[in-house]
Amino acid sequence: MGWRCGGLRWSPDGGELVWRDGGRERRSALVYGRELGFRAVGERHCAGVRGQPCPLGAVVSGRSAGGQCPDCARLDRSRSVAADTVADDPQPYTVYLAWFGPGMVKVGITAEARGSARLLEQGAVVFTRLGRGPLMAARRTEELLRTALGVPDRVPYAAKRAVRATLPTEEAERAQEVRELYGRAVALAGWPESLERADLEPVDHLTVFGLAGTPPVTGVIGELVDGGRVAGRLVAAAGPDLHLECGDSGVLVLDTRLVRGWELTGVTPTTGGGVTVPVRDLASTGTSASVQDGLF
After folding, report:
1. Based on the number of CB atoms within 10 Å of its own CB, is 2 exposed (0-12), middle (13-18) or buried (19 or more)?
2. Which pLDDT score, from 0 to 100, does residue 51 have?
3. Angle of helix 135-149 relative to helix 176-186, nearest 10 degrees?
4. Which of helix, strand or coil describes residue 117?
5. How high is the pLDDT of residue 3?
6. Contact 238, 6 (CB under 8 A)
7. pLDDT, position 270
8. pTM of the model
9. Within 10 Å of residue 282's Cβ, how many Cβ atoms?
10. Cα 271 from Cα 44, distance rounded (Å)
11. Would 110 disulfide with which of 49, 118, 146, 159, CB 3.0-4.6 Å?
12. Contact 239, 106 (CB under 8 A)
């Protein structure tokens, strides 16, 4: 078995593709403007659970966003705070507002120790923290704000992709909706006493994602297949999505969750034959095509 892709990881410094070969792991940083190309080889295998390999080495569907076999998916979910399966985690949690584009804001929580990583993973263009405290207090606050402000706790990835072409160019304008909702949120009664309020400090990820001035997306790669090639110039990345300028195919989104578990070999745009995997028009994906595995 060769190196298999473990997906995309984010830190405040940018994104990295993770590669695993048995117990070994390496990472390659994303560099905007650089050519990126690969060919999928063989069968796609289960990505395992949180860095641990699948004990069955199960083969999974090329269209699976999770990239996991049923057993690993159940184990992963059993450890998920986002899925409400963990109630006794002692570490502090942060409640936040995340903005993905005009008219698209959500409320959520993340472990304080993760910093802004969870927001980068979700593709939040702007976010602000609302408060910090124990897990259950953060959960109650999330539900209070979701109900009182009329904002969701989940946003479909397809909707996030569609709205990226309409992002305002001015940072203050991008933060405006977050500022308004923050003001309404802190004025609400009923916050748990154990949740410490946070000051308004909008954080903008447009530069980290490379989205300033990038061409609009024209299509979305639907899956990888054995022998299928993807080659183009990396122009932006947000959440799990890579935006690739692929010649006559335009700018395509590659959801790196679809890459997890594949063995890949390198190709170039000139020798690799461009894109030879299924592609959907952006408009045909619909805003309900993917709701982040039902969690976010």
Report:
1. exposed
2. 74
3. 110
4. helix
5. 78
6. no
7. 60
8. 0.89
9. 20
10. 24
11. 118
12. no
Rounded to the nearest integer, the mean pLDDT of the chain is 88
**Nearest C-alpha neighbor of 259 from the set 10, 66, 50, 27:** 66
Rounded to whole angstroms, what are the CA distances from 146 to 69, 106, 229, 250?
32, 8, 42, 38
Q: What's the pLDDT score for residue 85?
A: 52
Interval 178-207: pLDDT, tens? 999 999 999 999 999 999 999 999 999 999
**Phi/psi at 93 (nearest 5 deg)?**
-120, 155
- Overall average pLDDT of the 45-62 stretch: 88
* Burial classification of residue 257, based on how many CB atoms lie within 10 Å of its CB (0-12 exposed, 13-18 middle, 19 or more buried): buried
Structure tokens at 86: 């963990």
How distant is the alpha carbon of residue 133 from its chain centre?
25
266 DSSP β-pair partners: 38
Do residues 85 and 78 lie in contact, with contact meaning Cβ atoms separated by under 8 Å? yes
So what's the pLDDT on residue 288? 41
Collapsing DSSP to helix, strand or coil, 255 comes out as strand
The whole-angstrom separation of Cα 136 and Cα 146 is: 15
How far apart are the C-alpha atoms of 15 and 74, rounded to whole Å? 27
**Gap between the Cα atoms of 277 and 254, Å rounded:** 11
CA distance 150 to 102: 15
**Does residue 240 surpass a pLDDT of 50?**
yes
Structure tokens given for 219: 């299509």
Q: 153 is written with which tokens? A: 């706790």
Task: Compute CA distances 200 → 96, 146, 180, 182, 203, whole Å.
Answer: 10, 18, 10, 7, 10
Smallest CA-to-CA distance from 240 within 49, 9, 24 is with: 9
Q: What is the pLDDT of residues 55-98, one digit of tens each?
A: 888 999 998 888 899 999 999 887 666 555 566 678 999 999 99
CB atoms within 10 A of CB 140: 18
